[in-house]
Amino acid sequence: MAFEAYAARSHDKMKEVLMDPTAEGPAIHYYMIRGGSKKRNITVWEAGTVGGEYIKTYGHYHVGDLDETYWIIQGEGIALLQKMVVEGGESQPDRIEEFKAISVKAGDSVYMPPGHGHLVVNTGAQWLVTADDSPVLGAEDSASMPGHADYEAVKKMRGFAYYVVEKDGKPVLVSNKLYKEVQKKDFGGIPVIEN
Fold this sequence. Notes:
Elements: E1 6-10, H1 11-14, E2 28-33, H2 36-39, E3 41-45, E4 49-50, E5 53-54, E6 60-62, E7 68-74, E8 76-87, E9 90-105, E10 109-112, E11 117-122, E12 128-132, E13 149-150, H3 152-156, E14 162-167, E15 170-175, E16 181-186, E17 192-193
Parallel strand pairs: 9-16, 15-17
Antiparallel strand pairs: 1-2, 2-3, 3-12, 4-5, 6-11, 6-13, 7-10, 7-12, 8-9, 8-11, 14-15
């Protein structure tokens, strides 16, 4: 079976991690072409909001000691990074050791360190387009849900520790009530609403 490089993330799949899973949204939230660390991966986000929340990637944690860099080709957005608390060798999905929000625009790059989950949000009025160097493992790997990524912890918590929501035409961070603890927070100057 040959590797299919193209995948798209549908609204039905994204409902698992939306602040409001009942909100209407576009049929496809974002498009991916996987080329791996040699060719790079390209991701293109739709613009707009779903129930007030800006369109984002699903989010995942890397399996193993992988890092990743995103290069912003077009548009503007916010990258969210978070690292789970580890106790007794077990990751705690509802407890976050470190959360960081980074505003990005065309020409910027953002580094995703090992052990951190990440997602990227399109806060602009146009397509957000990025390239990244995340690996693709071969023909048996999925372009939609690659084998190096753990999506289950994000799904369990219905998203990251904060959602990026439009308020008065600007992005704000709204806390996800399912998380018990976020120890270290760096909001990057983005306003925050704690619920």
